[in-house]
Structures are given as structure tokens and as C-alpha cells.
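Human: If only I could read C-alpha cells as easily as an amino acid sequence. Take your time, and here it is.
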Amino acid sequence: MTQGYWTNDDFNVFSIEGLEHRMNGLQTKIQPKFEVVGEQISTYLSSRGTSEFFPHVAKHARRTVNPPNDSWVAFAPAKRGYKALPHFQIGLWGTHLFIILAVIYENPDKKGIAERLSHNVNQLISLPEDFVVSGDHMKPDAYNVREIGADGVESLLKRLESVKKAEFIIGRHLSRDKATELAEKEFFDFAENTIDQLSPIYDIIIGK
């Protein structure tokens, strides 16, 4: 049987007790894989021609007590920092893999982004049926886009526009069982396909 790119040992890092021990697990098991993902996917994103994208592997450097419950590599058209920009993320919780497009609370143009997306809600709800949406990147849960429909998406966008801490996250989740079945090429094919589906949404977000 082919070894999956992601393993149960990777996901189990988020069950390790204590900040120091969990960070050691992240640094030795997961971050080297994020570096590889960062190099390949930033090249793939840049090849679209919109902008040059740069990878940002989460370091969790500000944490002093609580160990991180998830980790990721982010992609944005900036070498320094990504949180104020719309960006892509590929990462893990203990329960699942995620590949998302994110507008988080540091973004200064949330009102404009909400308005642009509101004019294109049909494009959001016509994404494949396994796409999910969320209003908080700090929580693992998300709603199926098709299930909440236009009204549910509009509600998240209104919140994005009016609530300071509100966010808008859209993409795919893959359970750890399914994620660990994917060989390296299968995982990258899945990631690139997800980005292909999200790229028109990214273009709306940036007003292209």
C-alpha cells in the first residue's frame, strides 16, 4: 500500500500535551511537509499570472502557554505577512486537512470584500458539493455551502461587513482518514484542483 503524504502521526501531533512537546512535534513532523507544500503550491498559484505568491509557514511564535490546535502554510502575494490580505491556506487540525481561501479579521477591506462577494453569491453556492464555508478560522467546524445556500452565505457576508472580528473562510475539508489515504501526487492534485475552484472567488475578492 502506498504511503500517504499525510500520516496519522502528523494528525496525532495535535494530541501531544504541553506547548513545548507539541511545538517539537510540529517542527519535526509537520513543518518540513509544509515547506514542501509551500514551495509547490506557491509556484502553482504564481503560474496563474495574477500575482507572485509566497508561502508563509505558521510558526506560532507568540504562544507561551497554550499549544496550537491547528497549523498551516499560507499563500499570499506578499513576502512579509499575509494576515491583512486575502490568502490561501493548507493545513491540519487533529480531525481533518483543510484547503481554504481566507479573509480574516486583520483585513482592512472586509466591507468591500463582503459587497463584492454579495454580488456573486450564486458563484459561491455553485461550487462543488463538498465545499464548506465558515466565519471563524479559529474553529474547526464549517458549513456545507450547498446546504446553507444563498441565505446562509449572505448572513456570513453581512457579519463580515459589520462585525470587527468576523471572517470569511471558504474551501474544502478532508477527514484525516481520507487525507491519510492520499499519496503525494494525489494530495497535490487535490490541492491544486481545490485552488482551481477557489481562484475565481479570489479574483472577485480582490476586485479583479
Notes: The first helix runs from residue 8 to 12. The chain is about 45% helix and 20% strand. The mean pLDDT is 95.
